[in-house]
């Protein structure tokens, strides 16, 4: 019974990590670049804030599921079958969210949340260059998240394949 539970936890964690990686990749490569083609800065800003909040909500939710299930599978596994890939993958999945947000904002000397609030507070007087900068910053941020989460996903798939579970 415990082996089946561990296998289910590994499977759920890997699938949710794959979905989270796909969301980040889609946002970075398709959704955000298309915002720059919108006719007005107000439309781009409104769409950007909506897209950013929804993407962050879903990826955070999936990242928590991934971290919980893979770390639980690691803890529930018998000591002899405790593979470190479960621990590494759960840590990478957890860090691929707030850790990347913090590192990118520290590197660029900005606070992404503050910038988003500044864009919202401007009302209809939105500068197109500010929107472009916010979109480019978010695109870079999501690209880094995609890379890190993709690495964790690949590690999880190879680990599952190696387990035979």
Automatic annotation (TrEMBL):
<keyword id="KW-1133">Transmembrane helix</keyword>
<feature type="transmembrane region" description="Helical">
    <location>
        <begin position="85"/>
        <end position="104"/>
    </location>
</feature>
<protein>
    <recommendedName>
        <fullName>DUF1772-domain-containing protein</fullName>
    </recommendedName>
</protein>
<dbReference type="GO" id="GO:0005741">
    <property type="term" value="C:mitochondrial outer membrane"/>
</dbReference>
<dbReference type="InterPro" id="IPR051668">
    <property type="entry name" value="ATG33"/>
</dbReference>
<keyword id="KW-0812">Transmembrane</keyword>
<dbReference type="GO" id="GO:0000422">
    <property type="term" value="P:autophagy of mitochondrion"/>
</dbReference>
<keyword id="KW-0472">Membrane</keyword>
<feature type="transmembrane region" description="Helical">
    <location>
        <begin position="12"/>
        <end position="36"/>
    </location>
</feature>
<comment type="similarity">
    <text>Belongs to the ATG33 family.</text>
</comment>
<dbReference type="GO" id="GO:0016236">
    <property type="term" value="P:macroautophagy"/>
</dbReference>
